[in-house]
């Protein structure tokens, strides 16, 4: 998930540069900047929750009946 998050952030930066520099198809691309931001937020939430769950499991390990 971290790799996906990194790639989405990188794509968003490239999209912002294209829009700000008014390069090819910048009007069309501008519409997708909000979507890219939403994807970043979704993946950030997933990564944070995963990290929190992993930390909770290391602090409170599950004891299995042997």
Compact description:
The chain has 66 residues and is mainly alpha-helical. It has two helices and no strands.
* Beta strands, count: 0
- What's the gyration radius in Å? 18 Å
The helix tally amounts to 2
Strand and helix order: HH
Mean pLDDT: 86
Question: Largest sheet, if any?
Answer: none
Q: What is the terminal-to-terminal distance?
A: 34 Å
Query: How many domains in all?
Result: 1
Helix fraction by DSSP (H/I, runs of at least 4): over 70%
Which percent band covers the strand fraction?
under 5%
Quickly give the structural class: mainly alpha
Folded structure, characterized:
The protein is rod-shaped, with a radius of gyration of 18 Å. It contains two helices and no strands. It has one domain (2-58). The longest helix is centred in the middle third of the chain and has 34 residues, at 26-59. Helix 1 (2-20) packs antiparallel against helix 2 (26-59). It is mostly helical and 66 residues long. It starts with a helix and ends in a 7-residue tail after the last helix. It has helices at residues 2-20, 26-59.
């Amino acid at each position: 998930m971290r790799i996906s998050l990194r790639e989405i952030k990188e794509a968003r930066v490239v999209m912002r540069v294209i829009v700000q520099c008014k390069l090819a198809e910048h009007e069309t691309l501008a519409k997708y900047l909000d979507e890219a931001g939403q994807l970043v937020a979704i993946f950030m939430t997933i990564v944070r929750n995963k990290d929190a769950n992993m930390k909770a499991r290391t602090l409170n390990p599950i004891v299995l009946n042997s």
